[in-house]
């Protein structure tokens, strides 16, 4: 294969999770089911929060944004995979692949940012309860979300613009079910040193800083727990944090699992399978984690479904 510049590459080949023809119907059914569950679950969370005045608080404002981001997150990767399985094709256009890289980075980054903002919200609610509504006012909450969007939109754009300067071989194969930045860089025919340096720097700034913020917030929350004399107060404070802690553990745990899998095994197929956890499974489970352990959300969902029942 000869190397061609970016204008000469019309498409990439996504190898997917398996080449076995007998597994394709099973993969299609499993991923379609998970996609629909993720879409429906997160959509119900958004509708419940927007229609129930009891949930018009900072915590649920951030939760509705997290559900919106999760809908976009799964929509970035799964539909294209389903189309490729159904049509038995592996190609994706050059522009389509880079567009997928961009939006994947945007929504993955927003997930991380929103989880950090939600941790800060819980920190203020538990450690500074008397000043909570003053600090977490609607203007400040909106500004936090807007800042997160601006940072991740421009950061992702920077990576894509850097990637567009690379050259690729004709018929470049990507051993994944979607266009992932690291896999694209490995497939490039030109030097990717600058891209890798920028990627590592961005990983530290946009992943490690948010995680550090979450850990700091919960260290302060635990300190406040220990100072509480009332058992009921401890239980109430703990219950408001448990769902968020579960989602944080799921998101960062699966992300770390993907990284360790790629480092330890050096197997592209195992890396792709592990990626399913944080790209599809986590967005699918988030609505259940927040609704099953939260009486307010369960009540709002029950009222929402009861209103829609006569129309069914």
UniProtKB/TrEMBL annotation:
Family: Belongs to the G-protein coupled receptor 1 family.
The keyword Membrane is annotated on this UniProt entry: yes
Compartment annotation: Cell membrane
Keyword Membrane: yes
Membrane association type: Multi-pass membrane protein
Organismal lineage: Eukaryota, Metazoa, Chordata, Craniata, Vertebrata
Gene Ontology molecular function: any one: G protein-coupled receptor activity
Spans traversing the lipid bilayer: 26-49, 61-82, 102-120, 140-162, 193-216, 237-260, 272-292
Chief localization: membrane
Full protein name: Olfactory receptor
Keyword terms of this UniProt record: Cell membrane, G-protein coupled receptor, Membrane, Olfaction, Receptor, Sensory transduction, Transducer, Transmembrane, Transmembrane helix
Source organism superkingdom: Eukaryota
A Pfam family that the UniProt record links to this protein: 7tm_4
One Gene Ontology term, aspect cellular component: plasma membrane
Domain G-protein coupled receptors family 1 profile positions: 41-290
Function statement: Putative odorant or sperm cell receptor.
């Amino acid at each position: 294969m000869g190397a061609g510049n970016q204008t000469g590459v019309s498409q990439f080949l996504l190898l997917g999770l398996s080449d076995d023809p007998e597994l394709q119907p099973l993969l299609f059914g499993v991923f379609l089911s998970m996609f629909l569950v993720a879409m429906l679950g997160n959509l119900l969370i958004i509708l419940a929060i927007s229609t129930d005045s009891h949930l018009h608080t900072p915590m649920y404002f951030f939760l509705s944004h997290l559900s919106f981001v999760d809908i976009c997150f799964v929509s970035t990767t799964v539909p294209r995979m389903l189309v490729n399985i159904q049509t038995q094709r592996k190609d994706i256009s050059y522009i389509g692949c880079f567009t997928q890289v961009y939006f994947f980075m945007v929504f993955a980054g927003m997930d991380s940012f929103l989880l950090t903002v939600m941790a800060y919200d819980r920190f203020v609610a538990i450690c500074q309860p008397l000043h909570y509504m003053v600090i977490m006012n609607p203007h400040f909450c909106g500004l936090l979300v807007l800042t997160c969007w601006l940072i991740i939109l421009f950061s992702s754009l920077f990576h894509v613009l850097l990637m567009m300067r690379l050259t690729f071989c004709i018929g470049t194969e990507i051993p994944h079910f979607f266009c992932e930045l690291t896999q694209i860089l490995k497939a490039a025919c030109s030097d990717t040193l600058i891209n890798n340096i920028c990627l590592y720097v961005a990983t530290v700034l946009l992943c490690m800083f948010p995680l550090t913020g979450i850990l700091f917030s919960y260290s302060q929350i635990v300190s406040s727990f220990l100072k509480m004399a009332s058992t009921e107060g401890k239980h109430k404070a703990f219950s408001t944090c448990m769902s968020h802690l579960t989602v944080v553990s799921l998101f960062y745990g699966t992300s770390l699992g993907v990284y360790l899998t790629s480092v330890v095994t050096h197997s592209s197929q195992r890396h792709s399978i592990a990626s399913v956890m944080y790209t599809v499974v986590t967005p699918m489970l988030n609505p259940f984690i927040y609704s099953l352990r939260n009486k307010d959300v369960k009540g709002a969902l029950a009222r929402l479904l009861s209103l829609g029942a006569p129309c069914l």
